[in-house]
Amino acid sequence: MSSVVSDMHGARSEHARVKRMLPPVVRGLLWALIGFLVMNTLVSEVFDRMPYHPFITRASVTLGWVAAVGGWILGVGAWEGAVKPYLGYPEEWVVPQDWRKYFMYSTDHKVIGLQYIFSSLGGFLIAGFAAMLMRLELMKGQMWIFNNPGAYLSTVGVHGTVMMFSVGTVALVGGFGNYFIPLMIGANSTSFPRMSGVSQWLVPAGIATVVISPVLGQWTTGWRGYEPLAGQDPAGILFYYLGVFALTTSSLLVAINLTATILFKRAPGLTWNRIPMYAWGILAVSLLNLIWLPEIQMTFVMALLNAVIPLPYFAQIGSPLTYMEMFWLFGHPEVYIIVVPAFALWQEILPVMGQKSLFARQWGIIGLVFVMILSGLVWAHHMFTNMRNSQMLPFSFFTEMISIPTGFAYLVSLGTMWRANLKLNTPTLYTLMSMFNFLIGGVTGVLLADPVVNLQVHDSFFVVAHFHYTVIGAMVFSWFAAFFYWFPKLSGRMYNEFWGKVGAIWVFIAFNMTFGQFFFLGLHGMNRWVPVYPSYLEPMNFEVSLFAFLLGLGFVFNFLHIAWMWNKGPVAKDNPWQAKTLEWQTASPPGEQNFDPIPKVISGFYDYRDQRLPIRNSPQKEPTS
Amino acid sequence: MGDILAFTLVWILVSALGEIGIQSLIHHGVYYYTATTQALDGEAAFAFIITVLTPVFAFIVVMIGYDMIRFRSREPGMRPSPRQFYNNKVFVSIWILVSIALNLLFFVHPTASAVEQMFNSEKERYNRHDLIINVTARQWQWLFDYPQYNITQAQDANGNSILYLPVDRTVRFVLRSYDPMHMYDPYAGVIHSFWIPAFGVKQDIIPGETRYMYVHTNKVTSYNVDPMVRVQCAEVCGPGHPFMEAPVHVVSNVDFMNWIKQQQKLQAGQS
């Protein structure tokens, strides 16, 4: 779409060149600052003036934040790129075709995808650094890095929140989804490119909001921001609700955009029977996002009102458990929002690397869809410790049953690998590691679904280990699989196979040594959210921390490898894996137009009986195209 | 056929080795240290699930490993595998039936059976002679009252809250979250979670509600014997959360009555 803009030129682009402008990101920051100051001053000094109130009050910082995010979005380019054209003015947004295009509003899904990838990468590094601080603190049973438990708990909150809402739900959906879904379904753009361009810039805003939240005061609730405890916390919790609101809004817009794209922008011949597995995964995830994100956003609005006005919604005279119920009603589908794209990726990568037809494809799709449906029926297993007895069994039942559709991802993957010609390269290794890790996450999930066991291990490090196995173990490992699998497509270059494998084995060992031991810490009585714990747990915690640092270094090593080879790697062929899906049937990296002309799909993408391509670049014009 | 046979042999072998490992883990106690019948029930459920799941786990891990070694590509480029198939109705059917059967099994046992046992232990007719302990969770301290013995806020010599329990008794913990010592708002409470790791259960404490937790002690033990015999708040409740713990002593009936008398004397002296 950016090309459309630069094509329209003539006189206007000269005009645009003459009109000098700050770099968009800098202008966004400036407009955000102006927006905040103006709105904050209006609220705290004019509309809601109270004697002896400070300049920044809870009400003023909330509305000031809204103005700041508005200024930021407009400043990075939505003003010229989206608002003015909407009002009927000519579009005067010229995207330069160099590195600068990644630092401004854009409507090209590939630019947006990479922006999302970089944003989630930034979130991963920030939240990972917070995790390193936590593990440093936990090397000893007493406080020694942080000088008070509230600082530690705020760090826990920032770590969990940024990881979940800017990496877990974003990296494979907003990032790889935005980049690859149009390519995989044979389209040149997404359905709503302007909305998509705007939504990406909510991610850095959301991450920044959560990261600077301790400026307003500590918040001790962890990533759930849960009431009634949050009602006691200083104002830092406001920036938790607001930051997560920005991040979830971004994910919601991605969900709308990608759902519409998959439904309406498929190339001719790409029937429902031929939709690629990753697109199925993204479709399932987007439907989950569409259903559950508005629910949690409503909850956050309630919690925000509760904190700003203030109201006693969740205090003793209100309903103290309602927040937790609302949170987990969203919170468990959230887990599948994170892991369903990972399942889809296994089924995407293995047939290519095994050069063998996808096994039992329909069961893979049934698995993805039923995980999506059942995910809304399992959430209360987070609350066995506080629900009435009569509710336990149904939720326990569905939680156990969700392992059946989850297992179909394994059924398809294992069946595909059987008698394949499996290329044991870095993406394959990461995929298999992801399968192994999620298996441990799944087995311990069966244990957690059992109420009697749950009552012992809930809120202990056992649970922490379990969800790190599903989130890092399955999703982050699949994220790396995606990075290396699509590396030639994204960069046009090839990574180094040796160092790629070294990185994979490094993080695999460090990850399992870290979180494998978490299970035993939890069973031995280590509870969550504690910077201070009994001394008998100290030796194991000390040694776990060493492996955690090794894991952190391993991730940094992988990112350095990726960054280095992105610029210096040997030039790759357009389709180095001999894959059949559409994204490989065009140049690597793709030009401004993904496909010219739009290909016509004539068969499925997972048939490796021969080397015929599944498309016809029709010189004879088809009536549908 | 040869691959299937070889894989099956490896799978059986690894499952057997896995079972040996798992059984020795279970023998050492997956819960590390248990002091109530509830903990034993939970541990038994845990042990049953991991025992049954070991061959399933082994199946997938061995298959990943087998595929990696046996079906790896030995040439530099990409070449379609000479063996192509889309489906195997026998394999898919067995997979689906086994996964449904396993889940139904787990739902019946241990899920429903153990939950039934837990519900029964909470029924009033079984609990007529319970020791009742009123537990108050305040930010950030546990307070233990023994209403049957007119003891409020049982303390040790240093004034720290302490929990004494007789062995082989059913104990009913009555759990409330508020702050009797608060300067102006005793009902400003948050959610806590009452957890004694060695007792194998925990129960959240909700402000404004009264909740119950039942345990049946089965071992004379104390915090000094194993640090898992301690009360520990398991739900984050603010900056003081990690400090919300109290030592537990499970003692013989005679020792318990002695302790009661000592506490009563202490309280009489205070008033």
Automatic annotation (TrEMBL), chain B:
Q: Which UniProt keywords apply?
A: Copper, Electron transport, Membrane, Metal-binding, Translocase, Transmembrane, Transmembrane helix, Transport
Primary site of residence: membrane
Q: Which SUPFAM superfamilies match?
A: Cupredoxins
The cellular component terms of Gene Ontology attached to this UniProt record, alphabetical and capped at eight, are: membrane
Where is this gene product found? Membrane
Q: Which residues cross the membrane?
A: 44-69, 90-108
Q: Which InterPro entries match?
A: CcO_II, CcO_II-like_C, Copper_CuA, Cupredoxin, Cyt_c_oxidase_su2_TM_sf
Protein topology in the membrane: Multi-pass membrane protein
Question: What are the BP-aspect GO terms?
Answer: ATP synthesis coupled electron transport
Reactions mediated catalytically = 4 Fe(II)-[cytochrome c] + O2 + 8 H(+)(in) = 4 Fe(III)-[cytochrome c] + 2 H2O + 4 H(+)(out)
Q: Where is the Cytochrome oxidase subunit II copper A binding domain?
A: 128-262
List the Gene Ontology MF annotations in alphabetical order. Answer: copper ion binding; cytochrome-c oxidase activity
* Protein's job: Subunits I and II form the functional core of the enzyme complex. Electrons originating in cytochrome c are transferred via heme a and Cu(A) to the binuclear center formed by heme a3 and Cu(B).
Task: Give the UniProt family note.
Answer: Belongs to the cytochrome c oxidase subunit 2 family.
Name listed for the protein in its UniProt record:
cytochrome-c oxidase
What organism is this sequence from?
A: Sulfoacidibacillus thermotolerans
